Every structure is written in C-alpha cells, then in structure tokens.
Automatic annotation (TrEMBL):
CDD domains: LDH_like_2. Pfam families: 2-Hacid_dh, 2-Hacid_dh_C. This is D-lactate dehydrogenase. It comes from Croceitalea dokdonensis DOKDO 023. The keyword NAD applies. Belongs to the D-isomer specific 2-hydroxyacid dehydrogenase family.
Length: 332
C-alpha cells in the first residue's frame, strides 16, 4: 500500500522504515496535514497523521475523494480527527492506544525533580560562573504527598516510581485501576481531597468535556500553598491564565509542563528567528519556577519503536483484510 506520512519528523522516520516489514511504499511529508497540503495524499491508500495534523471535515472529504481508505494516527489521542466525517465518508480510523507509558511517567518525574531541586536556575547561574547557592534551597520528595490525576498505564507507572521515593500517593480517576488500588501507600480519593492535601499534583488524564480545565482558578484556590503542578497529559487540562495567576500569587510553587493548550502551530517547529506572538506562553517563560518542554515526554527510543511498530501493524492488518485491533471504537 502507498502511505502518505504527514508531519514526518527526522527523529521518527528511521523507526518507521525499520518497522515496515511488509514493504509498504512510504511517502514522507514534512508538512502538517491540512486543507492546503491534503493534495499530497493523492494516489495514496493510507494517510498516517500526527497529533499536530488537522484531519478536519473538509480534509477527510478530500482524502475520500482521493481514494484514501484508512487514517492511522501515530498517537493515542485522536481529537485532531473528525471521526463523524470519517464515518460518513467510509474512512476507517486507527491509533496507537499505548506506547511506553514509562517514558511519559519518567518525564513527569524529571519535571518534578527539576522543580523541587531548582535545577534550571542552578544550571543558568553556573553558565555565568556564579557558583553561589543563594536561593537554591530545594525540597525533598521523600515523605511528600503526591496527587496523581489519571491512573491508566501512565499514572500507574508514575505511582510506582513515586512509591520508590517514599511518597504518600493520592489517586483520582473516574474508574479505579485495580493494580493501583493494590499498591502500598496509595489511596483513591475525591478530587477536592487531592487538591487539599497534595504537595504536588501530576496530570495524566485524557482530555474530554469532563476534564477540560480541570485545573482552573477555583481548583487552584483549594490547593496547598506552594503546590507543584505537572502536566504531561493534555494541554487543555489546565487553564493557563489561572496557573499564571496562581504563580504570581505564590499559591503555585512550581509548574512543569510538557503540553500547552494552545501549542498547535508552534510546538515541533523552530520559531527562533520569528517574533513570538503567544503572549500567554511567553509570560510563562518569565518565571524561574516554571519548566517547559515541547511535548517531548514520549520521545524515547523505546516509545518511538513501539509507535512505529503499532502504526505499521495497523496498516498491514488493514491491507490483509483484517480488522485492525486498534480501530477507534467511537468511530466503528
């Protein structure tokens, strides 16, 4: 089959080629999929997209016109795909439901440690040959109470790590994960109890109507003074302006983010030579107690290998007339 791979990044292309055991024809497109670039999918059977692509109603209509039968997204989330339109046009949609949850859990831990021990200010100071320690007193994670919102595979992996640090864990999710419930030092509690008791909170929830802006000004007001927030889940779990206000009032003692609610259009790209126009994001970068990474929590060799292998298996299953096991149930 001929596949148009949109938003093809240098870091993932070798893994996709390595996983292409069935010899599909891969056409790598560096641009994002949108109505302007959809023409590059002509004569293709499959389109492979990334979370930054736009498989909108208009785009899917064009893909169907070109004869595209399958959209496979190289991500767990699929809110960048208009599933209703795909169903109407008879285009199947599949995804990568999970890939190395350990990678994202470890990144959450890295952000928490960087904030707790003030590693970024320390690094910046040393680059100017200032080896003084004023203002660098940090806090230990041991014996702290940590809230984990979302106890799927990623949240479960993070809880295992935090248990090793000797933390008390407060878990919150709409559904109890039996594996998590059986772990030591973990208690499932109501959301407001997490807010009231946690010294740090990690967001590992999916994004939906019930979780959008789950961290807003009202939630922040209920938290302990100096709380550390970590978001490596979905950008819109957090009301960014509310977090900025919380940092300014010192209610929030640190914010580590790998995702941003308005990241579409600039994450994964180099804008270093441009006038940066997102004032909200620019304001975040002015705080010394904010650590930002550009949606890279997934970016490990293990995760990239698993994403590529699952993506190519989805395509091969479809090519062989099998129903891909990773079809999106909301669509089929």
């Amino acid at each position: 089959m001929k596949i148009a791979v949109y938003s093809a990044h240098e870091f993932e292309i070798p893994f996709l080629r390595e996983a292409n055991d069935d010899g599909h024809e891969l056409h790598f497109v560096s641009e994002k999929l949108n109505i302007q670039t959809v023409g590059q999918a002509k004569n293709c059977d499959v389109v492979a997209v990334f979370s930054s692509d736009e498989a909108s109603k208009e785009v899917i209509a064009k893909l169907a016109e070109f004869g595209v039968e399958l959209i496979t997204t190289r991500s767990a989330g699929f809110n960048h795909i208009d599933l209703k339109s795909a169903k109407e046009w008879g285009v199947r949609v599949v995804h990568v439901p999970e890939y190395s949850p350990q990678a994202i859990a470890e990144h959450c831990m890295a952000l928490l440690l960087a904030l707790s021990r003030k590693l970024i200010p320390s690094y910046e100071r040393i680059r100017t040959y200032d080896f003084s320690l004023r203002g660098l007193t940090g806090s230990e994670i041991n014996k702290k109470t940590i809230g984990v919102l979302g106890t799927g595979n990623i949240g479960c992996s993070l809880i295992k790590i935090l248990n090793g640090f000797g933390c008390t864990l407060l878990a919150y999710d709409a559904e109890v994960n039996d594996k998590v419930a059986e772990m030591k030092n973990v208690n499932y509690v109501e959301l407001n109890e997490v807010f009231a008791q946690a010294d740090a909170i990690s967001l590992n929830l999916p994004l939906n109507e019930g979780t959008k802006h789950i961290i807003d000004s009202a939630a922040i007001e209920k938290m302990k003074n100096g709380v550390i927030l970590i978001n490596a889940g979905r950008g819109a779990l957090v009301d960014t302006q509310a977090v900025i206000d919380g940092i300014k009032s010192e209610k929030i003692g640190g914010f580590g983010m790998d995702v941003y609610e308005h990241e579409k259009g600039f994450f994964y790209e180099d804008h270093s030579e441009e006038v940066f126009k997102d004032d909200l994001f620019a304001r975040l970068l002015t705080f010394k107690n904010v650590v930002v990474t550009a949606h890279q929590a997934f970016l490990t060799e293990t995760a990239l290998k698993e994403i590529a292998e699952t993506t190519m298996k989805n395509i091969s299953d479809f090519a062989k007339g099998r129903i891909p096991e990773n079809k999106i149930e909301h669509h089929q």
